Amino acid sequence: MHEVFNACLLAISALLFAIGLAGLVALTKGYRHLRCARMDRTLEDQNLLMKSPLVPPLSMLAVVRDASQESREFVRRLLNVHYSSVETILVLDGLSDPDLETWKTAYRLAVSSRAFSTTLPAARIRCIYEARDANRLIVVAKDAGGNADSLNAGVNVARSPLIGLVECGSEFQTDCFLRLVQPILEDSAQTVAACGMAPGPAGTGICAGFSALECLRAWLSCCGWKGKGNPIPAIPGSSLLISREAVMEAGGFRTGLLEFFVRLQAGASSASKPPRVIFVPEPLSYRGLAKKFGELRDAVLARQRQIASAVRWPSLLSRPIICLLTLRVLRPALETATYIMTAIGAAAGWIDLYTAAFVAISTIGMGILQSMSSVVLRELAEPGLFSPGQLAGLFLTSIPENLGYRQLRNFWMMAGLAPDRRV
Q1: Which of 199, 224, 342, 385 has the smallest count of CB within 10 Å of its CB?
Q2: How many CA atoms lie within 13 A of 291 on its CB side?
Q3: Per the domain annotation, does 42 fall within a domain?
Q4: Domain total of the chain
């Protein structure tokens, strides 16, 4: 009995070790792309794009569910985006009458006669407003339907060929869409979307360190896909530029951005000229770091619920999606199983010290190595972004991250696979 038990434990540990090595290879590829093929855009390029009639007009979409100060400040920052021809479409998803009045007062909204499409499924639009004070601000008041439903409503109202998206609460550069439109202009026949992000400034506290390391690993791994095209671009905090025609042809959004890009990947695998999604590894936008364990948990659960609702069998043939499922679904389950099996085997006397050491190396040791490598590779690719103290702090945070938080995060990731049934 114990021989079979030992063999199973070693086999699972070997698979986890291989997954860890593949992760290190992805980080290294990301570093090489940053060093060798990173886009070098100048201010003169952006000034030319601002004046060029060849740049397609842009409709920026924002979805809010309240009238809080944070939401109003986010919309104000969107209105300051630099682009040659842009309109901002603010979708108010199921707001109460008092919250709607707050928005009306803040921007002196007037009822608009603007026509809109009904091609994409969306909840009933109550009214469309235009702002008297803000330049080209369109406000859509609609019944509650969720984020994907609200994005569909925004696309229906939009008139521009390009759709711009920035996650509410994210920090972004005012020229982010000028940077994103450049790869689309270079291959407009095949490139249907571009996304950009980079890890933000270093935070303070252990939770911020855990959040920064996770973002850094995801970013470097996505950089490794840059040259091949079609990564999974819906990293939290990304700024996105998508062809409106591609959204309409795909039938709009069903559960969210991740689901849309997964569906796009599935269709690309069978197309003769598959649509391309370009990742721009520039500091165009980023999401703030977590400050509390509750924020870390909520972020992990939200991401896992997106994956659970997005992935369907036809999409599993895509290599990026296989990698995503391996890291976010298979690895946490296998790793948790090895911990339980190791504890049972040690208590029963079925495993020796060498087997236990291999389990620790393939899980905890590989995790520490990946996190430390991501810190070093980021600094080598872009020296001087962090102070020596910040670098040392992130480097050493890799140890507690994998000696406690990693195991807790595995449970969160498995719990988050249950589909989110909230509206």
Answers
A1: 385
A2: 1
A3: no
A4: 2
- Model confidence pLDDT, tens digit, residues 330-341: 999 999 999 999
Calculate the CA dihedral of residues 341, 347, 353, 356 and round it to 10 degrees.
20
- 355 inside domain: yes
- Give just the sign of the alpha carbon dihedral 59, 219, 167, 50: negative
Q: Decide if 135 is inside a domain.
A: yes
H-state helical runs in 94-146: 97-107
Among residues of the chain, what percentage have pLDDT more than 90? 55
Contact by Cβ (8 Å): 62, 74: yes
Domain boundary among 252, 278, 311: 311
Above 90 in pLDDT, residue 404?
Answer: yes
Sequence-distant (6+) residues with CB within 8 A of 127 are 111, 141
Residue pair 166/239 in contact by the 8 Å Cβ criterion: yes
In this structure, the answer to whether residues 303 and 328 fall within a common structural domain is: no
CATH number of the structural domain spanning residue 255: 3.90.550.10
**Domain that includes residue 106, residue range:** 56-311
Confidence tier at 155 by pLDDT (50, 70, 90): very high
What's the token pair of residue 276? 């391309």
3-state SS class at 242: strand
Return d(Cα 55, Cα 84) in angstroms, integer: 7
Three-state secondary-structure class, residue 111: strand
